[in-house]
Amino acid sequence: MPVLLTLGADLGSTASKCVIMQDGRKIAAQTTIPVGAGTSGPSRAIAESLAACGKNLADMHMVCATGYGRHSMTDAHMEVSELSCHARGAFFLFPKARTVIDIGGQDAKVLRLSGGRLNNFVMNDKCAAGTGRFLEVMAKVLEVETADLAEWGAQSTAPVSISSTCTVFAESEVISHLAVAADRRDIIAGIHKSVAHRVAGLVRRVGAEPLVIMTGGVARNAGVRLELEAAIATPISVSPLAQFNGALGAALLAHDRLLQQL
Amino acid sequence: MSQNPQETPVPAKTLLANLAANAYSDAWEAKKRGEKVGWCASNFPQELTTTLGVKVVYPENQAAAIAAKGGGLGHCEHAEGLGYSNDICAYARINLAFMDRQSCEEMNMPMPDFVLCCNNICNCMIKWYESISRELNIPFILLDVPYNSEFETDDDTLEYMWAQFQYAVKQLEEITGKKWSEKRFKEVRDISLRTSRAWLKAAGYCQCEPSPLNGFDLFNHMAVAVCARGTVEAAEAFEKLAEEYAQAAKEGASTYKGEQKFRILFEGIACWPYLRATSAPLKENGVNVTATVYATAFGFLYDDNPLSMMRAYTHVPNAISVERAARMRIDVGRRNKIDGAVIHNNRSCKLWSGIMPEIDRRIQAELKIPTVTFDGDQADPRNFSEEQYKTRIQALVEVMTENKKGKKQ
Predict the structure, then answer these.
(1) Residues in chain A whose beta carbon is closer than 8 A to a beta carbon of chain B?
(2) Superfamily of domain A95-238
(3) Which of A234, B16, B69, B135 is within CB 3.0–4.6 Å of B106 for a Cys-Cys bond?
């Protein structure tokens, strides 16, 4: 039987991620481009991942698109919501996963898995508070790279309180703290706490049933993760592939579909 | 309803559309004749005005129509320019803008000589109608329905409401010069009851599999239940609608085009500015709305005792306890065999949306179904994101698909 190649493309609001899998077991390529749906990101992410394993799109046996840009990917054979993709990806990475917290660019969601399948979910409301975009806005105000936020926050000795849930109001709050010369490390720790508490509210609605997994770009921020663990009083596991989890799930669902068709 | 047998029967939906339009043209005619015309809250006991033969129009109904026709933003912004906060109900803002402009492209209605307010919907309505009363210097008649935190309504509340109703009769007699008739009151109650029964019977066909109707049809037809409930024509039109649904159910036909793969509860007031955007993703995925409490809330059942009528008006969705509110959803969900629920977190209606997290939890716990919540607004188009809605619906469909697979295995 030939090797089955499947491509999963997670075309999010702030980044485009792509994963190519062999036989639904081995990751052949993974790429991320830090711009999302509606930009050059999706095509670049797909081209780079194909190039990384020396393949063409025509070599893919099944292509699955997910994320906000999923409808615009005309080459995809199937479209699946990012919720199902994150559930599938998390189950692949952590077969005992029961709760998945995904914090993406513009939304935060908590998934309940049952036997590896998405059983229920809650998402944040329309507001961007508690999402990756919130962190990006704050990083910009603080003149810190988003990727460095965790390191800065870890050095805090007295986190400040960021009480506003609104991104715009919280930005003003951060500026107010800066204006009175508050330590940036303390402000960043306060921001992490704010995001974590916002998401913890969603987690409580579904229930933090172990094993709890965190996926999405924000999972790489240890500051948010630690605050979230404290807020829900449950350990959280994170894979190095957290940011690729949606694309990984899409590639796996494409493989599942192939198997159904065989 | 007498019809020449040789004539093509007029479908119920046409009759209903005509009746809804007539309710407004009748009010215009009355105004031209020099009669006093009022603006009335949708859940005010219409038995009062119908008995007296006083014409009223419904600002909520007009605001929904304006929003559905794309006029919500302009009206909301106009009201905000007058100083009304964008935190208040968009129906209120649209109506207050209309009050100021006195005309609009989307749907006109006569200006009021009095307002009839009933806070069984919300207390925002009191301030809204007080503003109209003050701005236009016209009488304000209130039927106060205290929020009921208990499952049943106590007799003191009913007597308090009935006393207000009787006082409102006197007020309206003085304002309009029309005379109250107990005989006519009895007739109107009988007709209203007949209409309500027919409306609930028609909506009840959602229980059939497949449902003979697209659930969104109810949002269109309910206008008659709001503004013409006390008329024989409304009763007959709803009876005809029920007959049509009965026939369709027998034949396995439906106004929902396509396979009905999933059945859901659509919870909350419709997102009028985005009716197509909210219905299309459901349609594309074979999802039909077979349960709603919003549309059927306008079916008021009572007996000959006036207190029984008052009781019916305390069971409006926004005037009831969380226990009764949850029971309404769970019962209709079970009866109409839903696979999931879509919950509208309506930014206009804090009272309705505020209890939804708990209602959501109870629906999930009792019916063991997935639910999804989306942000929107009944009339302000700035509070809805189409993409976010689509993602939520797609994910809900994926979960319902898996659940069905699980049941088959």
Answers:
(1) 68, 79-84, 107, 117-123, 125-126, 205
(2) ATPase, nucleotide binding domain (3.30.420.40)
(3) B69
